[in-house]
Amino acid sequence: MVPSRKKKFWSKLYISYVRWWISRNFKEVNVQPFEPRPGHSILLLSNHFSWWDGFIANWTAVYNLKKQYYVMMQQDQFDQRSYLRYIGAYSIQKGSRAMLESLTYSAGILDKPDNLIVIFPQGELFSNHETHIHVEKGVYKLMQQIKGPCQIVYHCILIDYFESLKPRAYVHLFDLGVANELTFEQLKENVNQAHQQALKNQINIEH
Predict the structure, then answer these.
(1) First to last CA, the chain
(2) Which 3 state secondary structure label does DSSP give 204?
(3) Which is it for strands 150-160 and 168-178: parallel, antiparallel or unpaired?
């Protein structure tokens, strides 16, 4: 694995770029009200349907959850964008011994309450209209290694246009529990209950 070399200067510069880039392409990013648990790091599990997901998750982490942003990336994707290591990205390679090293490294990040890691539990891109979220077991293996208090949060991005030429990104956040208090079956069930609730909430969203 290749670890993160997160730098405050580059992180601040990058989030400014993210804000500018999103403002050019979206009517708004609307993050629904959510209060994180005090004194907890956050493992942010996000649905994965587009190139924009990492940008929007970064927005949520910094502006709404007030956390230091880290993101786990597949090795091949990381190799193409290795400069992202300076804003919190690090690599994981499935099916290798290095995967266990990446999970241990992730747990170490989440032992600090100021930190947040974004993971896409589906492992690949699916339609924004997907009604079931597949959760790979590697997420749970990571959770088992976290020693400090860590909140698991589901981060669901849904897109609507309504009257605008530009899309609106709506972010629905759900508390799934604490890392060392969940079984794998409970995690999968909680993720999918949260996803179904987000789809229902989106129908009645104000715009």
Answers:
(1) 43
(2) coil
(3) antiparallel
| pTM: predicted TM-score of the whole model, two decimal places | 0.93
In tens, the pLDDT along 68-86 reads 999 988 888 888 888 889 9
pLDDT in tens, 120-137: 988 777 888 889 999 988
Show contacts of 147-150: CB within 8 Å, 24+ apart.
147/107, 147/111, 148/41, 148/110, 148/111, 148/112, 148/113, 149/37, 149/39, 149/40, 149/41, 149/113, 149/178, 150/40, 150/41, 150/42, 150/43, 150/110, 150/111, 150/178, 150/179, 150/180
Q: What share of the chain is helix, strand, coil (3-state, %, to 5)?
A: 45, 25, 35
